[in-house]
């Protein structure tokens, strides 16, 4: 009987021991599962990812040209918004049957078309430059890409465009000044009112126009000098980086020749159009005066 009780006790002790081991093992399994779950839990840290791994090797001129391309695109987008606003304003006035100057209508449409064309050009240029900056590599060699060559050629020959358009601007100012003097002389039979304010308010308009043209002349000269110096500094940075011939002199001279021909055509067409417009205005005013004299008689 005692042996039977002892056997039962031993069996219960073994069962308790097994249960304790099973519980301990289950706890360890649960702990390990929790540890595995927490170790696999994703962490949301903001990591700055560079699209181009060689971006740190970009030369100074390349970074500056990329920024200039971006700022130029933004500037023309602002001009585009202003042109669209001006065009919408003129259209609204026409639809509302309100009085609007014919000059505003004549200037709005060409201005909008020109701004749209220039914005599209600089926007595409910036996109090409930006896409190139994501793949270009300056680490191993001095890479000369298509956009860099195009930018360098534009800067190297840009002074021709600046000088031609500056000449056109100065010529238009001279024509405007001559017209202003002629109108003042026809009305007052004196050129004094062109430069000196007088009691008559009508004559003061000629003086104001003269001073405005003087201010525009100063702004034009300063802008021309600034653009020429700035363009020189930009292509000099590119030349100093590469230290070899980027584009042949023959190609540069060929582009200069084409630019001179194109700009000369634009210059003479613009001057001819201005003189033709002055002639039309003169004939219109003269016809109105003859009509008024005929009605009075």
What percent of the residues sit in helical stretches (DSSP H or I)? over 70%
Strand content: under 5%
Quaternary: single chain
From the N-terminal CA to the C-terminal CA, the straight-line distance is 158 Å
Q: How many alpha or pi helices?
A: 8
Provide the low-confidence segments as ranges. 1-12, 36-42
Q: What sequence of helices (H) and strands (E) makes up the elements? A: HHHHHHHH
Major sheet description: none
Structural class: mainly alpha
Number of strands: 0
Q: What is the global morphology?
A: elongated
Radius of gyration: 39 Å
Q: Residue-averaged pLDDT, rounded?
A: 78
Question: How would you explain this protein's 3D organization?
Answer:
By secondary structure, the protein is mainly alpha-helical. Helix content is 82%, strand content 0%. The chain has helices at residues 2-40, 60-95, 102-133, 146-156, 158-188, 192-195, 201-242, 249-296.
């Amino acid at each position: 009987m005692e042996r039977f009780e002892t056997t039962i006790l031993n069996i219960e002790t073994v069962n308790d021991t097994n249960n304790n081991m099973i519980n301990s093992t289950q706890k360890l399994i649960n702990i390990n599962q929790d540890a595995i779950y927490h170790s696999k839990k994703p962490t949301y840290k903001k990591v700055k990812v560079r699209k181009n791994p060689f971006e740190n090797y970009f030369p100074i001129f390349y970074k500056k040209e990329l920024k200039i391309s971006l700022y130029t695109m933004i500037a023309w987008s602002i001009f585009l918004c202003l042109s669209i606003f001006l065009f919408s304003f003129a259209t609204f006035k026409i639809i509302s049957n309100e009085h609007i100057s014919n000059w505003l209508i004549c200037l709005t449409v060409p201005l909008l078309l020109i701004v749209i064309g220039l914005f599209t050009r600089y926007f595409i240029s910036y996109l090409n430059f930006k896409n190139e900056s994501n793949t270009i590599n300056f680490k191993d060699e001095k890479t000369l890409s298509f956009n860099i060559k195009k930018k360098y050629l534009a800067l190297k020959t840009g002074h021709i465009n600046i000088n031609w358009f500056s000449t056109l601007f100065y010529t238009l100012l001279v024509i405007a000044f001559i017209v202003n003097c002629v109108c003042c002389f026809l009305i007052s039979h004196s050129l004094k009112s062109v430069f000196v304010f007088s009691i008559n308010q009508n004559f003061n308009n000629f003086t104001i126009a003269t001073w405005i043209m003087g201010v525009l002349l100063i702004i034009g000269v300063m802008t021309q000098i600034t653009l020429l110096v700035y363009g020189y500094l930009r292509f000099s940075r590119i030349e100093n980086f590469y230290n070899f011939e980027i584009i042949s002199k023959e190609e540069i001279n060929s582009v200069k020749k084409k630019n001179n021909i194109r700009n000369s055509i634009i210059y003479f067409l613009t001057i001819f159009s201005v003189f033709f417009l002055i002639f039309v205005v003169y004939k219109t005013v003269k016809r109105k005066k003859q009509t008024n004299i005929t009605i009075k008689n």
